[in-house]
Amino acid sequence: MKLHRTLVGLVGVVLMIVGVFSTSNAEEINVDTSELEKTENVLELVIVTAQKVSQSIQEVSAAVSVMSGDTFASIGATELADIQVLVPSIRLQKESASTEIYIRGVGSTLDLPMIESPNAYNINGIYIPREVSSASVFDINRIEVLPGPQGTLYGRGALGGTINLITNRPGDEFASSVMLEVGNYSLIRGTATLNMPVNDKLAMRVAVSGHYRDGYLKSGANSAEDIAGMFSLDWQPSDDVSVFFWTHIEDKGGYADNLLSKGSFSDPKSQAFPHPGDPWNDLLDGDLEGYATLGPIDKRPKDWQTKIFGGEINWDINDNLRLTYIPSYLDFEWDQGYWITHKPGDFGEEIKQTTHELRLSHDAGDKLKWLVGLYAYRFESKGKFFIKFGPNELGAGPTPFWLNANNIQNHVLKGASIFGQATYSFTDKWRLVFGGRLSVDDRKANGFVPGLVEGTTTPSKEHINPFTGMPNWSWASNEKWNNFDWKLSIESDVGRNSLFYTTVQTGFQPGTFDSVPGLITKPSELLAFSAGIKNTFLDGRLIVNDELFYYDYTNLLTQAWDAATASNRLTNTDATIYGNQFDLSYLPWNNTQLRLSLAYLHGRYDDFVTAVGDFTDLQMQNAPDWTASLGLVQDWELQSGGYLRFQINSRFESSYWGDFSHSPGLYQDSYTRTNVLLAYHAVNEAWSLGVWVDNIENQAVQSAAAPGSPYFDPAPGAVFLEPPRTYGVRFTANF
Asked: pLDDT digit string (tens) for 43-101?
């Protein structure tokens, strides 16, 4: 541990010296380091709330990335996973109902009721469960990505970092807008917003979104029939009190995604698919018909519904003191059928969640700024996962049968915490940031042990084993954890326009259980060291930021779903992660903007030996060593007063594996994906019309993945795929 601190300290000294010598002649300015908007003279200033206080992004002592709502809309994004093209060292990959979030190698797979993401996704300050992270994203103000453990301010489940989505709030002017988009795969997508001031104290905002398209897979699977609505109001009964209320209600239909076979039994790193030249063909026909022992592959419906209610009440007690209360309630239901290569599955879950956060912040403009808070939550869920196996699979018999792979009858995770963070200014240039969080978490659950169940076409609700005639065994679990997270950071304005920082902080995630009696995992802990520098040059036209990090990960929750045996390989191990994130934004002249992000990530498992094998020193799952993203926005002003915009965003990832054991067929080779947009914008942004193409390369990139059956599948891997090449036309209008 002393060596770890020494290395980070040496890095900090080097960065400080670089900052002093490189910024002595520049002027002070705070600007956005992560997005490229149409501006004049300087890159746009962005205010973020990643640290639960309002700050310029250049004042935050972390490698924060920010995407504005306009940037999000311009790339045609509809879900959280779509921002991956803009953010370095992060993987956002879809899996059934959820979005798997990996930040700097920290993440987990499989959306079962007892598995939470080790990264926190929040909407307007409210924690969103993994299964609801695939909710449609529209009418947003910005998205903030904050890497590194955030246990002090965000609590459990923020080991790898946080993603904060902030929606647009009602304003004091009447305004409306529409967006209509059509494209291949019969795409029709539209959004509409209406902002309505009622009087000088009350305003309301309504936004609706509809999304329809055919499936990306040959069978018609992975389609969309989504409708969502948001309503919010902002009420200021007095100069000192404000009340913000919002709700998001959504129904996602269409057909669920299927897992496809991938790879070769003779080459673990093969990128081959059963249908050469058509990776998105999920059918088992022609020469592959022999694998379709349970019938032809088809599309199967999904039913995904959620209701989220949230609020924020602020009371300015005086000029220096503010009291904030953030309550929420979430209700979620999901049910779907889908194919796991050649086997049909039946998947579903229900969630009810309530959260409460109360915090008091103080800022008198003097040496000490602080905030303290209380937090409490209750998360209740239950879920099912049934898989149908073919004749003689798993040695169970000559006829098809259903396996109750995971069945949680009731699962409750609840907890409470007290937290605080403060900034103390020693001088005009040096500051100390320190904080802590004391928490308690309690997990209680019961369900059925995996086993065969009656029924040949639908899973039985009675959980009766068809061979023994006896009910499957049940189990129960009840565990409790206490934890203290802390943070210590030193900030220094080492030049008129430079911020140097070095930080040590921790994160924590409660343990969980598997559907096997007595198997309880240990809580995960992360100790992180980081050192970085933020610089602004050329009168605000150039921003160069860099951060080095080192993570000591204890009892990492590792899991991999084995599609061959329908088992969840759940265990703990230690890991070491270190790397560097470099971000550059440049405005060479008024109508051209460049963005470059480059990240190196070395994530490897420590002594990791199980009954299955030795995985020591293997690359962590879904953690490519190198990622790079490049963006260009070029505007041409026209005599009419409008302008023509060309925008390109490209992302490169080096190779990685889809599970911790590096199973054959789950290797993703290095790749590049590029999105382009060409659009005309009328005077004063009254309307725009553009054409776009996403994934120009038509690159087949695996998303969530699992080992397949070596005897009953055409290939050893079972993977979801990211979308193929898509294109379309987009029209917007503002009134």
From this structure: 765 787 878 888 888 888 888 898 888 888 888 888 999 988 888 889 999 888 889 99
For the record, the structure tokens of 704 come out as: 């969530």
Longest Cα pair distance anywhere in the chain, in angstroms? 82
Tell me how far apart the alpha carbons of residues 568 and 581 are, in angstroms, rounded to a whole number.
33
C-alpha to C-alpha distances, 591 to 540, 543, 596, 639, 691, nearest whole angstrom: 15, 17, 17, 15, 20
Q: For 420-468, what is each residue's pLDDT tens digit?
A: 999 999 999 999 999 999 999 999 998 888 888 876 566 665 677 777 7
The C-alpha atoms of residue 542 and residue 277 are separated, in whole angstroms, by 43
- For residue 82, the SS3 value is helix
Two tokens, residue 408: 């949680």
Distance CA 82, CA 77 (A): 5
204: β partners: 196, 233
Higher pLDDT, 380 or 10: 380
Two structure tokens written together for 331: 């209700």
Residues 323-382 pLDDT 10s: 999 999 999 999 999 999 999 999 899 999 999 999 999 998 889 999 999 999 999 999
Q: Which long-range contacts (CB under 8 A, 24 or more apart) does 699-702 make?
A: 699/671, 699/672, 699/673, 700/271, 700/273, 700/279, 700/280, 700/724, 701/668, 701/671, 701/673, 702/262, 702/658, 702/666, 702/668
Backbone angles phi, psi at 641, to 5 degrees: 100, -15
Neighbours of 614 (CB within 10 A): 12
Per the DSSP assignment, residues forming a β-bridge with 194 are 176, 206
Q: Is 683 within 8 Å of 639 (Cβ atoms)?
A: no
Query: In what helix (H) or strand (E) does residue 11 lie, and over which residues does it extend?
Result: helix 2-22
For the record, the structure tokens of 282 come out as 């999920």
* Strand 120-123, strand 161-167: pairing: parallel
Rg (CA), the chain: 26
For tokens 């022609």, what's the residue? 286
Phi (first) and psi of residue 72, to 5 degrees: -60, -45
CA separation for the pair 434, 455 (Å, rounded): 58
pLDDT (tens digit, 9 = 90+) per residue, 295-324?
A: 999 999 999 999 999 999 999 999 999 999
CB burial of residue 111 (10 Å; 0-12, 13-18, 19+): buried
- HEC profile for 556-601? EEEEEEECCCCEEEEEEEEEEEEEEEEEEEEEEECCEEEEEEEEEE
For residue 86, CA distances in Å to 249, 258, 583 come to: 27, 27, 11
Q: Which residue has the tokens 């997990």?
A: 443
Query: % helix / strand / coil in the chain, to the nearest 5?
Result: 10, 55, 35
The SS3 assignment for 549 reads strand
Q: What is the pTM of this model?
A: 0.90
* Tokens found for residue 160: 């790898």
